[in-house]
Design a protein that fits this description.
59 residues; mainly alpha; 2 helices; 78% helix; extended
């Protein structure tokens, strides 16, 4: 993988993590892999909905 491709992937990841920090996702209040996975899936779903809404408004 080229450096440019690595930076592109890293930029997407860092953007999502920054958004989650703005939503106060700093420490999870649940224990266990299943619960953590469920919480993270909810945050990912919220992120995807907001991103879809932003892209639809721009089009």
């Amino acid at each position: 993988m080229s450096k440019r491709a690595q930076y592109r992937v890293r930029g997407i990841c860092e953007c999502i993590h920054a958004r989650w920090r703005n939503w106060n996702l700093i420490r999870l209040s649940v224990r266990g892999l299943k619960k953590v996975r469920a919480v993270m899936l909810w945050y990912a779903l919220g992120n995807n909905i907001l991103q879809t809404h932003r892209l639809a408004a721009a089009a």
